């Protein structure tokens, strides 16, 4: 019999530690009568397996295709070994040393097994809001250092009871080496407090919280990666009060419902949406509202005003499930617990201090959050999930690269900041950090860098940054101490490289980099760029013609300024004679001051931004002259096009200059839109024509550039591509012209993905 035995050594890398991988291997070994052992090491999981050839083959196959839900294999190496005497298969003690090549699991939603146990009155963990196992629960937000062992997590202050320890030590138990393992006897606890921090005595804090929410109160709820502000989403007064207290005028608020059946009552869901909602990452998913008499009353109008969509998620922590099962709710508002652009609260004392003017009550617990992580946001577009925000549930899972990179820190952009650290073929992009316009966010940015460097054991040799000297991220990079090389990467080139990197593109591409802002190499603000891009360099092939931004950043919050700039660009001083309601609604003195600013170049930087052009058309057509949040005007313009019932949409006239780089002329488009407004065309039809114009002109211009260069690959990046009409329309037209179109599906197309492009571009610049 021994003559028929073979032995193999397996080395498995990726997310394979702390996710139930070795117990899974142990069970497979029992199934296939494999003898040997498995151990965690600094190089990954090492397995010595001995058995019959067909059993070894099945064992290896099942490891790859039936791995635990949280496991992700990036390397599976196998080599023959001499046959030795093993009496059984065992899990041996982990070898010491930092797990420098292993990966840390993200925080993930509660698994079906834990949910079943929590809802079972006969189970020891019945109703316990911190139930978890190797298949679910907190990871990234509770780890302070490597290796990922309990003493290096926020669970270190909770010694396991006898029963939990027995589970932890048993390789046949799904809580074997589950570092956050706990129960009501030994683990974290919740308590309900008033806004002054005084505990409210109650036998069931979660039930009491649900009752308070049902009564119209606002509750600050400590979750997995930070606090939420919760309110009953059916209660118009409660939601309006939350908006008023949080100073969040119109930006949509996220919703959480108990199950899909409830969500289907107020939102449209297809199969792809269901998959996302039910995934272990449990992101916020953008869903179209249902509009009928039976459903209009289900969600308060104040949740998502003047918007065709809701952002919805299912419960992802045990506490969420308990809260939503206590009392029937159609949905709870679950919005980030912060003020303005300050990062979300994670510490109990900090929450009482910052949120006392917003929340009426606080449901807190005593398990510390080491690193905040906002909810991820995803939208299904053109057949794939697209990130609007990549954070909780996905971080710190790396983006896997085509080439090995040195250890690089990329500091990201000024808006929607993330940072990126690279190690060999792994690019680790941080959770959402936010807009870098205050010291609190800058502190969070620095904390995240140090935290990720520590838990990933990365010591950067290269620092990549944006060209804008006033970005806090750039200032940090330039002040970085140590023996490192510092490389500035142009904003829109970084956008395109991020798309190239996640798609493993090797050859040059025509890059469409459309967004709101980014410093160009000529000192102007870019944002409507067609680039011939490689990893290490780019050429500006074309761009939208420049417009002044009167008032600079004020023009972002006040789109009417860009609309005036457009009219002046298209009509000059004749704009005074144009019969437009938009102009009649502006005080003449105010209009004169703005035109003087443009004429005399006073605080009116030049921009080629397509995002600003969208804003201007939204203002011209009367959709929105002032924005309460970034991108609002452009979003509402897109929604008008969605509402267009005409299928015969013709583009406006368009043209571009012949000199290099070509300039896409805005004048004929603006003049065509003004004619339609004066003719009384519906705003929905004008918006639809505007979108069609952009699709036609960009695809036609790409066709010419493609013929000139021989390039047949196109990469789309930049925040404007969150616009589904433009995104899907361009893909369709470019495909029709024979181009292969690459898009983002692993990182956001917005500035949240730019750190990846910075890192890869910096490597390529040095390499070349």
Automatic annotation (TrEMBL):
Occurrences of domain YrdC-like (ranges): 203-393
Pathways per UniProt: Protein modification; [NiFe] hydrogenase maturation
Keyword terms: Hydrolase, Ligase, Metal-binding, Zinc, Zinc-finger
GO molecular function: acylphosphatase activity; carboxyl- or carbamoyltransferase activity; double-stranded RNA binding; ligase activity; zinc ion binding
Enzyme category, top tier: ligase
Active site: 22, 40
Keyword Ligase: yes
Secretion signal span: none
GO biological process, any: protein maturation
The reaction(s) this protein catalyses: an acyl phosphate + H2O = a carboxylate + phosphate + H(+); C-terminal L-cysteinyl-[HypE protein] + carbamoyl phosphate + ATP + H2O = C-terminal S-carboxamide-L-cysteinyl-[HypE protein] + AMP + phosphate + diphosphate + H(+)
Domain Acylphosphatase-like: 7-93
PROSITE patterns listed in its UniProt record: ACYLPHOSPHATASE_1, ACYLPHOSPHATASE_3, YRDC
Superkingdom of origin organism: Bacteria
EC number: 6.2.-.-
Entry-linked NCBIfam families: hypF
Family membership: Belongs to the carbamoyltransferase HypF family.
Listed name of the protein: Carbamoyltransferase
Organism name: Desulfonema limicola
Protein's gene: hypF
